[in-house]
Amino acid sequence: MIQICERIMDLPRMTPVLTGLKVLMGDIFDWEGNLLTKNGSIAEQMYHLGQLVSQWRRMEPESYKVIFNIKNREFEAKSLPMVVHFYETLRADAHHENEKKNFRFVTSL
Fold first, then answer.
1. Rounded Cα distance, 11 and 95, in Å
2. Pairing with 59, which of 20, 29, 95, 104 sits 20 to 30 Å away (CA)?
3. With contact defined as beta carbons under 8 Å apart, do 24 and 1 qualify?
4. Cα-Cα-Cα-Cα dihedral of 14, 17, 22, 25, to 10°?
5. Overall pTM surpassing 0.85 (yes/no)
6. pLDDT band per the 50, 70, 90 thresholds, residue 86
7. Is residue 96 part of a domain?
8. Are 49 and 28 in contact (CB under 8 A)?
9. What digits encode the pLDDT tens for the residues 10-26?
10. What's the domain range around 50?
11. Is 24 a member of any domain?
């Protein structure tokens, strides 16, 4: 048991929780099949762990959508000043071009 906990603790911090739970589930199935049948069963705990894995599987895709929306809003907020600057530069350039055309028109008269 200590070795399994150490294996799970050694997983990188960014490892999805589901990966750690799968490692634990695999080892528990081995225990249940080989060791615990003589001394009792942990079937109830396995059931609850399986429920937890199922819950995480449902939550992961939903959380990706939320994370994407948050990151998208952050990107929009960071990019807005650049968009405004770009727009002002285009307007200033267009205004400058119009002034050049007007100057050429007036001087050609």
1. 59
2. 29
3. no
4. 140
5. no
6. confident
7. no
8. yes
9. 777 666 777 777 777 77
10. 2-78
11. yes
